Amino acid sequence: MLRIVNKKKFIRGISIIIAGLAIAIIVLVMLIKGVIYLFTRPKEDKNKENNEIAEMSIANTENTIPISSNIDNTKNSNNEVLNEWNLKLVNKDNAVDRSYVPELTEIDDGVKFDSRAIKYLKDMINAMYKDGIKSIWVQSAYRSYDKQEQLFNNKVAYYKREGKSQEEAERLAQTVVQRPEMSEHNLGLAADFNTVTNEFENTEAFKWLKEHAEEYGFILRYPKDKQDITGITYESWHWRYVGKEHAKLMNEKGYCLEEYIDYLKSSEQV
Ligand SMILES: [Zn+2]
User: Is 235 a catalytic residue?
Assistant: First the structure.
């Protein structure tokens, strides 16, 4: 009995020693690893810090980084972004080809809008209704090239009746009505609200749009402080669809569409 007990004690003792040794070895290995880590870590962290600083300094230099990643991760370059249908730039220097006729969908009263964007226009107007703004309607949206031509010619005739020369009449008309192929209304992406006068600026609807239109992808296309860049006099009633991400970024940067396109192009060159 005694010998058995002793044997048991002996085995237990040996087991404890082996276990103790194993623990000691593990602790030792961990300590060594810890020491090695302590010596190597500062280098890694320093590199990491340097990388972060480099990234920050890139981010701080405006117009030098492609911003496509901000917009859509699937886009490889701003070139693709620039070719998006919703960013199409149309103005006196950028005519739209007459062959370009988007697929159109009619809003209730016969006014037409680009089928791809009409949902956002409707959502925006519905949201205004929900917020208690009932006095809002789309007076004009898509215009055919012929319709635009007619509007432009009417305006030229008006100035000629005022005694202006043909050249002067056309120049003046162009600041109010765009020539056909040079109007955003040919794209079906612009909506003129209510009375199509700057009285719109004093309405609740205008205040609402200034605050919320970007959430639906719309921008005030011809702001007061950008007349020299857009070449169009201030139009508080004319809102253009560009897409939510672009609208937000444009407002954030204070860019009109011309400036924003330039910004995307300059980013692309890097
Ligand atoms: Zn308009």
Answer: yes
